[in-house]
Amino acid sequence: MALQLKSASPAQGARWLRDGFRLFGRSPLAFSLLFVSFLATALLASMLPLLGPVLLFCAMPLVSLGFMVAAESSLAGGRVHPGQFITPLRGDAQKRRSLLVLCGLHGLALVVAMALSDAVDGGAFDALVRSGAQGQRPQEVEALVGDPRLAQGLALRFGLMALLSVPFWHAPALVHWGGQGPAQSLFSSTLAMWRNKTAFIVYLVAWVGMIGLFGVVTSLLAGLLNARQIVGHLTLPAGLVFSTVFYVSLIFTFHDSFGGTEAVVSAP
């Protein structure tokens, strides 16, 4: 289908978050199951030495597109289910090849970004992750956190991931619904992100505000009830909901950047 590059107003950035929560509210269990199935698959992949993380890096464009397909199905009154992660790989062979190329490029780019970050921090980040998993003593963890290379590596790590998200934000959807090739979709996504940068900044600020407000409210609640453990009990489900809503809201960023899509409605 033909897509048209559109301009999104700053206010639309806040509406993306609102509409994400509204759509999630239509099928909270189904969307949550979608995210949990992704987490379970990621956990299984992480058990494969070396190859597992690379496969996960490669799969991320399909993960975001799968949520967009599910969200579009929900908007059209259809079902939401984990099978929609592979829906884009069915049918048109050219689109499938383009999506697989995007997955390969994304995986390669992330591997390079992680390797550069590891070179800068000297492995401090990996050591910190291992310390948490192995339950090392607080003094050892404090020493790792105090390593100045860790901050430098984290800055580079998140900076490169932010830059990488720009061309890949809309690219899978542009292949799936717009029939664009890998190079064209990456360029179109970058152009749309730049054109609508103010809306995306508002979107980011809205998310930061939402998460910050949750932190303040839970801290106040814990203080009033004199139950500090409540913060931990609420953080996990809230993290699940926020992560799921983020992926659900991607369809609205695409709608306002390129117009509507042809709804992918699952069979009843």
What report would you give on this structure?
The protein has one domain. With about 270 residues, the protein is mostly helical. The protein has 11 helices and no strands. The two termini are about 25 Å apart. Helix 1 (about 10-25) crosses helix 11 and helix 3 crosses helix 11.
List keywords for this structure.
268 residues; mainly alpha; 11 helices; 79% helix; globular; disordered C terminus
Low-confidence stretches: 262-268
Question: Which radius of gyration do the C-alpha atoms yield?
Answer: 20 Å
Strand content: under 5%
Average predicted local confidence, pLDDT: 87
- What's the total number of strands? 0
CA(first)-CA(last) distance: 25 Å
Principal-axis shape equals: globular
Largest sheet: none
Topology pattern, helix = H, strand = E: HHHHHHHHHHH
Total discrete domains: 1
Oligomer: single chain
Number of helices: 11
- Percent helix: over 70%
Structural category: mainly alpha
